[in-house]
Amino acid sequence: MKKIFYFLTLSLFALNINAQKEWEGKFEQLGTNLPTPNEYRTGSGAPGESYWQQKVDYDMEITLDDAKQTITGSEKIHYHNNSPDQLNYLWIQLDQNMRNKNSNTYKTMAVGGAKENDTIPAKIFSQYMDTPDLERGFNIVSVTDDKGNKLPYIINQTMMRIDVPQPIKSGGEFKFRISWNYNINDRMSEGGRSGYEYFPKDDNYLYTIAQFFPRLAVYDDANGWQNKQFLGRGEFALEFGDYKVAITVPADHVVASTGTLQNPKDVLSAEHLKRFEMAKKSFDKPVIIVTEDEAIENEKTKDSKNKTWVFDAKMVRDFAFASSRKFIWDAQAVQLENSAPLAMSYYPKEGNPLWEEESTKAVVATLKTYSKFTIEYPYPKAISVHAASIGMEYPMICFNFGRPNEDGTVSDRTKYGMIGVIIHEVGHNFFPMIINSDERQWTWMDEGLNTFVQYLTEQEQYVDFPSRRGPAANITPYMSMPKDQIRPIMTNSEQIKQFGWNAYAKPATALNILRETIMGKELFDAAFKEYATRWAFKRPQPADLFRTLEDASAVDLDWFWKGWFYTVDHVDVEIEDVRWMKIGAKPQMASVDKTPVEETSKKKKKKKKKKSKVEEVVEMPKEKKEAEAATDFSKGPKPFVLAETDARMYGEYRNKVDDSKIIAEASKKNFYSIKFANKGGLVTPIILEFTFKDGSKTIERIPAEVWRMDEESITKTFSFEKEVTNIVLDPLKETADTNTENNVFPKVEAKSKFDKLNGKA
Q1: What is the pTM of this model?
Q2: Which residues pair with 697 in a beta bridge?
Q3: Of residues 23, 352, 82, 69, the one with CA closest to residue 205
């Protein structure tokens, strides 16, 4: 018998475990979905006491050849191994190699096969269906140690492994050198995040140069080496370090760059230097350092001599620059709490008048708002460079689209598009240039968080800004797509479908809903600022964000992360049924076409017809009849009874309630029992707007945890002294509900008749 009991016990235990594995509710904790806390990353979402990251310093000399459109460079690299591990080799990123003829970027593009009689634009064909016939990618000239000895290396597509002579021990360092060159790509025909734009009317080039040097890949506690190949979409994982960069360009070029200019007297005229110093004290408007007239004259010179601009940058994770003789240049100081960085813009005449009016203003707005919601901007400047058809970011500098028509006119779409992209790209200084997430793996951690604060900036700094991403209602077209067309936010950058929706809009909207509807602005803002402070100049993982927002707010958000970030569920809650009830109410028999009096008098005249046996069998159950009839309030309240409490219900609890008082108070009220159906699968707060007979309104807010016992259907009762005439779910469109037609009561199909009955038609 004991054996049988033991067997049954084990069987039941196994069934229970299997049931738990098969069913994991939407309110179960994330648990093992998140990495186990350790000495590097704590369960609170903060860096651990032994947190570490590598440091890489660069000393570079770069030459831009304006005649041949080439970059030639050499760099001294100082690698600091702060990890607890011994390193036998180093991985270097060679991003320009994605443009090689044999690049996997081209080989892995799948855009659909060409069919008979198809018409395909040549540009699309050349970019996606044809192997490029151009010499692109890095030409590595030499790799040596700091004494000039050759180092063995292997190039694998966009990654290069350098074998070090001796293992780099924990706490050790290694110095080496790389020399290289490459042909700059034509952005306007080949595309790309950096490259050149040619202006045939004045025979000049505008260069926006990035990913131009071999850069160390990340080695961290989460992945070891982050040496996933660069296919073009998943961006960059980079180490912080100090940079000294000497950039040689034609003498008539103006250079914008990451870092602080070290030799202004060597490269600027006395007048330009004077204006530059004035800009450092101008807090109300930009000072134009190089005017449009001066830039136009500059376009004509084609100076054969060169100048070298020297820049120094501390604690940055990357470096980029722009160079052209076409540049107009303006700058303005931004007063923050503890510093006054410069907001600057560089743009050709083709960008005016729009850029002179709006660019630096947008940079100022960005630094102020982002500093408020994250950390104070720590760098000495932030630059916006005008470059057609692009939006791309680097430390202290970004490249932005937004060009007026040739006659200088500007549509609202162009104007707000330009302001939006400047805010977004300058905002990337915070995500991921300072709060240094791994873009190669998690696009949403920089694009999504940045788009969210971009939305806050647009709304805070501009009147009636037409924000595209952020408001909950704007995400519903994406959320209601067929499930095979979308992917969870927690998807690697290269596997994302609907890239803009998934990596930018959905996480930004999720955070906005979290701030405005679930947590409240005060709690959210404090927790979000805590995340930014904890992880500034460090490398956060998704779990660090999730855990920090919960840790700093005392709000359990596991259900939210699971639904919004790990699934493709959407919000679609239906008001399925509403029951109006009153104590002792006499049910009315009105229809939507006849008044109660007419209905009653006619029924008195009718003789009660005896039901046949067939009718008795097929007659609809009473409950179903009532459910179908519950489309409006025309039949009046249904009665219910409050009874005095039986003494046996108290047990040992001796304090009795005043039954008569409770019944008397309840008798004055209308009760509305509302049944909600979760059609979309994503649990959400319930927000209801009740309109009363006297025209007044009230809003009730119910947390998402109301679904925790039943994730598909719930019923909740509300009481009011006044009669309700209309109920709207999600009245302010806060939750991204994809179907608003089932959010109202009286139901859509009954509403016109109900309005007619109540004299509203």
Answers
A1: 0.88
A2: 691
A3: 69
Helix residue ranges per DSSP H, 167-326 = 187-190, 264-267, 270-279, 292-299
Alpha helix segments (H runs only) across 619-711: 622-629, 659-666
Nearest-angstrom CA–CA distance, 206 and 418: 18
Return the sign of the alpha-carbon dihedral for residues 454, 457, 459, 465: negative
pLDDT tens-digit readout, 560-586: 999 999 999 999 999 999 999 999 776
Write the DSSP string, 500-558: IIIIIIHHHHHHHHIIIIII-HHHHHHHHHHHHHHHTTB---HHHHHHHHHHTTT---H
C-beta of residue 348 within 8 angstroms of C-beta of residue 363? no
Task: Give 3-state DSSP helix, strand, coil % of the chain, rounded to 5.
Answer: 30, 25, 40
Each residue's pLDDT tens digit, 465-524: 999 999 999 999 999 999 999 999 999 988 888 999 999 999 999 999 999 999 999 999
Q: What is the CA radius of gyration of the chain?
A: 33
The band of 209, judged by pLDDT with boundaries at 50, 70 and 90, is very high
How many other β-carbons are positioned within 10 Å of the β-carbon of residue 67?
Answer: 9
Model confidence pLDDT, tens digit, residues 427-439: 999 999 999 999 9
pLDDT band (50, 70, 90) for residue 127: low
* 239 touches 536 (CB < 8 A): no
- Determine what percent of the chain is predicted with pLDDT higher than 90: 76
Length of the chain (residues):
761
Q: List domains and CATH numbers for the chain.
A: 54-239 (2.60.40), 437-568 (1.10.390.10), 573-757 (no CATH)
Of all helices (H) and strands (E), which one includes residue 719?
A: strand 713-720
CA triplet 695, 700, 703: central angle to 5 degrees?
Answer: 165
